[in-house]
Write a structure and sequence with these properties.
Blueprint: E1 2-7, E2 12-19, E3 22-30, H1 32-35, H2 43-62, E4 71-77, H3 81-98, E5 102-106, H4 107-113, E6 126-131, E7 136-141, E8 148-152, H5 158-168, H6 175-183, H7 208-219, H8 235-261, E9 265-269, H9 276-288, E10 292-294, H10 298-301, H11 306-317
Parallel strand pairs: 1-4, 4-5, 6-9, 9-10
Antiparallel strand pairs: 1-2, 2-3, 6-7, 7-8
Helix pairs in contact: 2-3, 4-11, 5-6, 5-7, 5-8, 6-8, 8-9
The structure holds 5'-O-[(R)-(carboxyoxy)(hydroxy)phosphoryl]adenosine and zinc ion.
Length: about 325
């Protein structure tokens, strides 16, 4: 079955045509340049850009020669409401016009399913760490099609922490790649930054305290000081220390969760999974526990529609169908 996937949950207008876990065609229009001046995604700007780009991106995929879609899968949550509604409306219109089945897909479950596009691909039972600018959570996939959330961040997402620390250091947006680049010349243990919730028994995360700790290390105790002190503090050392703290907590808790459940396959996903230090530490710690790590290429870690089509195909095969009343939702799972 050829499934047309559509994702507009955040700041990427993305469409893909996928059949039997093979991407036949895909197109992504990223919006980083539009949001960079604001240091983060502006929902209204994102929604407008999706509305402008949706038809050209859809056209590009449909004319790429992959064949006609048999079904449509679309992200209906979680995400930003305006952006979600653009993709959802396009998916409904297309499915209605062509008389195709339509299915709504949970964006976070789809990040896990992105690993099914790998060769070799993991097979359940799987433990997945999904870390992006908006989400950070652990999933257990005990069997195909079942996604159990084990824990999640109780405040900031890991990517958000990268972005905010980067902003404090005067680095560009998005912060993750900028921190990674700056960290290359830094000493990861030059600043003793906290590892929030690392040794708590649960599978939750917390990153807002880490960000605040960076702020106070930069400003000292002088609350009157307006700007972070990046003149005397080496940006590379702080970038490396923050990256190490985030990678440490994420990989420690992901591997511990897999070990506790006797799961031997760990999947990384979300934009933060592009981080080299995170991958390195995950592989090192997983190997010590006899666990294999699966990391999709960067284009499948960040938001993409191929993963939506893959999760959609799974749902469609299980008989799921949505109608034109399918709604978008902002947070959690419906
Ligand atoms: O999955 P994604 O593209 O979009 C969503 O947030 O849904 O993730 C974007 C996030 C941003 O916070 C960005 O700073 C982070 O992923 N990111 C990275 C890296 N590349 C992107 N974080 C750390 N290291 C990277 N190399
Ligand atoms: Zn995402």
């Amino acid at each position: 079955m050829r499934v047309l996937g559509i994702d507009t949950s955040c700041d990427e207008t993305s469409v893909a045509l996928v059949e039997d876990r093979v991407i036949l065609a895909e197109a992504v229009y990223g919006q980083n340049a539009l949001h960079r001046p604001f240091g983060g995604v502006v929902p209204e700007i994102a929604a407008r850009a999706h509305a402008e780009r949706m038809v050209p991106v859809l056209d590009e995929v449909l004319t790429a020669g992959g064949g006609a879609p048999d079904a449509v899968a679309v992200t209906n949550g979680p995400g930003l409401i305006g952006p979600l509604l653009v993709g959802l409306s396009a998916a409904k219109a297309f499915a209605f016009a062509r008389g195709l089945p339509l299915v709504g897909v949970n964006h976070l479950q789809a990040h896990v399913a992105a690993a099914y596009l790998l060769d070799p691909a993991p097979a359940p039972p799987i433990l997945a760490l999904i870390a992006s600018g908006g989400h950070t959570l652990l999933f257990e996939v005990p069997e195909p099609g079942t996604y159990q959330r084990l824990g999640q961040t109780i405040d900031d997402a890991a990517g958000e922490c990268f972005d905010k620390v980067a902003a404090l250091l005067g680095l560009s947006y998005p912060g993750g790649p900028a921190i990674e680049e700056a960290a290359k010349d830094g000493d990861a243990f030059s600043f003793a930054l906290p590892r929030p919730l690392k040794n708590h028994a649960n599978d939750d995360f917390s990153f807002s305290g880490l960000k605040t700790s960076v702020l106070y290390k930069l400003k000292g105790q002088d609350k009157r000081r307006a700007d972070p002190d990046t003149a005397t503090i080496k940006v590379a050392d702080m970038a490396a220390s923050a990256q190490e703290a985030i990678a440490d907590v994420l990989t420690f808790k992901a591997v511990r969760a897999a070990r506790r459940r006797g799961i031997k396959q760990l999947v990384l996903g979300g934009g933060v999974a592009a981080n080299t230090r995170l991958r390195e530490l995950a592989v090192e710690r997983a190997a010590a526990a006899g666990i294999t790590v699966f990391v999709p290429p960067r284009s499948l870690c960040t938001d993409n529609a191929a993963m939506i089509a893959i999760r959609g195909a799974e749902l469609l095969a299980a008989g799921a169908r949505d109608d034109l009343y399918l709604d978008a939702y902002v947070g959690g799972t419906p």
